[in-house]
Each structure stands twice: as C-alpha cells, then as structure tokens.
Amino acid sequence: MGAHKTARDEEFRTFVGSAWSRLLRTAYLLAGDRHGAEDLVQQALERAYAAWNRVRAADDPYAYVRRIVINEHARRFRRRLVEYPVTEFPDRPAPAGTDPDDRAVLLAALGALPPRQRQAVVLRYWEDLSETQTAEAMGCSVGTVKSQAARGLAKLRGASSLIGLTSIGGAR
Questions:
Q1: Quick check: 129 and 121 in contact, CB under 8 A?
Q2: CATH code of domain 1-80
C-alpha cells in the first residue's frame, strides 16, 4: 500500500504543478483577489485529493477540478453580490497595446457582475469554453449559460465606466 500511496501522491503533485496557474487565474476572476483565489484553489485541490481516484479517471481531470473551484466559489458567495477591485490577472501580462487604465476599468466592471453572470462570462470568454462545456462546468443548462453570459455582456457593454475605452478588445 505504501508504494501505491506514494505513486498516487506523486501523480497528484504532477497534476497540481501543471494545473495550478490555470486554476488560479480562473479562481482569481471569480473571487476577485489573489488570496481568495488561492483559498478557492486550495479548497478545490483538497477535495480533489480526497477523491483523486475519481478525478484521475475522469475524461479531463482539469475540468473536474475547475468544476470544484466553481462550486466552492458558488458556495462561498451564494446569494451575495460581491464587488471587488481587480487590477491585473495573475501570471498573465496585459496584451501589447492595452492601456493599463482601460484594463483596470474593464476588470472592475467584470468584478461588479453578479457571481453567476461573472462565471458564465469568465468560462465562455476567458477560458474559451463552448456553451456545452460551460454548462457542464457551472452545473446548469446551456440555456442558462446563454442567458447569464448575454446578461453579463449586456451589463459590461452598458457600464458607463467602459464607454469610450479603445483597447478593451485585446484585454482577454
């Protein structure tokens, strides 16, 4: 059993090493700050480790753990609108030609979205998931993804703070 546990632990460590930064970026966009994002990812990884046999048997272990991150976020912020100042993405510099002030305004507007709309927008347009993949990750129907993403984008388009920004097209 000792050798099996050691191999299992090493496999989990390898997974964490390869998935950490992607999970952290997604959690950051959901939570709004680096410490909250790290907490979300750590909680998700604790759950993933406890169920590692199920996770590694999944078609996509990363997607499985990303879903845990989303569920942890939903539990933490259920029924609460959480606004947060987001100024940068961890581990990802602004694209060339992006005005840092425009980027900060865009990220603050994203932070003002209700959690479900923020999840839909982040997963569809940041993680670049299909509607079906986003629905699976959020645990809802494709129709819910469409409506939540559309409402989120409409709020972003209508945000007075975003009117007149010129470089937000590249601020993915």
A1: no
A2: 1.10.1740
